[in-house]
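[step 3/7] fold_predict: job queued, chain A
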Amino acid sequence: MIQDPFILLSTINMKLRDSGEDLDSLCKSEGYDRAELERRLGEAGFEYLPSANQFR
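[step 4/7] structure written:
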């Protein structure tokens, strides 16, 4: 998984936007651990907003 939280944020939000998947589906299809992803982005001050289908 990408180490820099801002590059990770950009990558995940791009994949969410381009794939049309929600976070659970994206994590399953890409093999990401959702809890770890949310923890890492949360440490950088971002949270997943299901209504927007992106981290902000």
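[step 5/7] annotate
The two ends are 19 Å apart (CA to CA).
The first helix runs from residue 5 to 19.
exit 0
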